[in-house]
Design brief:
With 227 residues, the protein is α/β, with parallel strands linked by helices. It is built from eight helices and nine strands. α3 runs antiparallel to α4 and α5 packs parallel to α7.
């Protein structure tokens, strides 16, 4: 894992589960800095989480919004969360937040913080494009779940945790389209692109960052590997 660029998508549910989770942010900073000392570099892209949904729901309650307007509210929520992370890593992070995953990624800093791009694309998709951009082979998706499941375990008691799965099998479990505010372990459009690129994606609980280290070191880990 030494001297590789790690693309990490941090779910907004981790940054702002309700109020801003400073304990998670402190743990993330320790994790990232420890791996920088080992030679790694990071591209960290942030989701919008409850901040996005609260703004989307509030606006929609007053005036029915177009899909693009809903999406832009979500995008700006991701950018607010990204600025929070860039501030936390101000000593190590590039001062400009990446908002276009197709642009050249600067190599002058050990950390590049990224956020939402444009309507129609999720931050999962942006993470996949960033990995393509820098030639990374893996994307780590940090969420608030231990595993992806065969179905929503809150609705289906027969749902089972997935430890390892192929892209064709995984994509059968996803909806065909992505919509702003979709709650899914991985965006279906991003999944299609990741499969085409031959990317490996690991879905890991962000409250268990030691499991990310285990994954990076090729050890057994708690989470879902899609390949």
């Amino acid at each position: 894992m030494d001297k590789q660029t790690l693309v990490i998508s941090v779910g907004g549910s981790l940054i702002v589960p309700d109020a801003i989770d400073t304990n998670f942010l402190k743990a993330l900073k320790v994790f990232v800095l420890s791996h920088i000392e080992k030679g790694a570099s990071f591209i960290i892209i942030t989701g919008g989480g409850k901040t996005a949904r609260r703004y989307q729901d509030a606006a929609n309650e007053v005036t029915p919004l177009t899909r693009d307007d809903l999406d832009w509210l979500g995008i700006h929520a991701t950018r607010l969360n990204a600025h929070l992370l860039r501030s936390i890593f101000f000593e190590q992070a590039h001062p400009i937040i990446n908002t276009d995953p197709t642009e050249a990624v600067p190599t002058t800093h050990k950390i590049v913080i990224a956020a939402g791009w444009k309507p129609g694309w999720s931050t999962d998709y942006d993470a996949v494009l960033l990995a393509k951009n820098v030639g990374a082979k893996k994307v780590i998706n940090l969420s608030n779940i231990d595993y992806a499941y065969t179905a929503d375990p809150k609705k289906d008691p027969t749902a089972t945790a997935i430890e390892k799965i192929t892209w064709p099998e995984f994509r059968k479990l996803l909806p065909e389209k992505w919509d702003p505010g979709l709650s899914s372990p991985f965006d279906p459009i991003a999944a299609k692109e990741a499969e085409a690129l031959g990317l490996e994606v690991a879905i890991i609980n962000g409250s268990k960052l030691d499991e990310v280290t285990n994954y990076l070191e090729g050890k057994s880990f708690v989470g879902t590997k899609i390949e």
